Fold this protein.
Amino acid sequence: MLNWFLLGLLLAAGLGLLLYWLLIVTEGVYLGRRIVVWMYDLTAHRYDRIKQFDGDAERFLVIRPLLGRLLERPAPLVLDVATGTGRLPAHLLDEPTFNGCVIGLDASARMLSQAWPKLSVYHHRANLVQQIAVDLPFANGVFDAVSCLEALEFFPDDTLALLEMVRVLRPGGTLLVTRRRGWEAKTFVGRYRDQETFEALLSSLGLIGVESRLWQIEYDLVFARKPEMIKD
Ligand SMILES: C[S@@+](CC[C@H](N)C(=O)[O-])C[C@H]1O[C@@H](n2cnc3c(N)ncnc32)[C@H](O)[C@@H]1O
């Protein structure tokens, strides 16, 4: 009788852990893209409260290093893939030295509807598109910078998404993405990449100047550049 009870307890604990890993740690990525997006739709109204972004940290660690790579462009065009509630576009557009336009793209309608009130004040300089991160609805080589923060690990295929980002980046343009790190990252079975492997992946996509920077406990920021076209 006691053995059956213990067995039941162990099974329940195992199931609980499995659900925790599937839904909380890996945010549904092993259950398919629709589940991931559905979960973001469900929690969109709480996202900013949970994340508590620090404006100064965003400015100094993300926005200014990005702007430093866009100096020679008077009015850069930036694409933020998986923009969520508009974190990167809002901080970028808030910078007095940024005179460009930002398009934020995300698959979750509700995340985008949280972003819009922050971005609509910038009128034509901000746009939002509801779309998944592959088959980006843009021509080749149109963006001066493409960013994707805290999202690659939730895409069905991060390499395909990166290929698309590189396609829409202009020659000489900047890619800014994040690499998941820390112990939770290692539980993304079959998807985790250490720094060396991640940088090698970006190089294999033709990018140069790949540079990882420690950003948060859970993420590195990774900058890279698409080479200029070689003139004959
Ligand atoms: C952790 S949030 C990051 C949002 C934002 N970049 C930030 O740093 O606050 C991940 C975002 O990825 C989006 N997302 C997940 N899978 C996606 C996909 N396949 N295509 C486009 N967006 C996706 C989610 O809707 C969510 O807004």
Remarks:
- The chain has one domain: 50-225.
- The chain has a mean pLDDT of 96.
- The pocket of S-adenosylmethionine is lined by residues 33, 36-37, 40, 82-84, 87, 106-108, 111, 132-133, 149-151, 154-155 (CB under 6 Å).
- The CA atoms of residues 92 and 230 lie 31 Å apart.
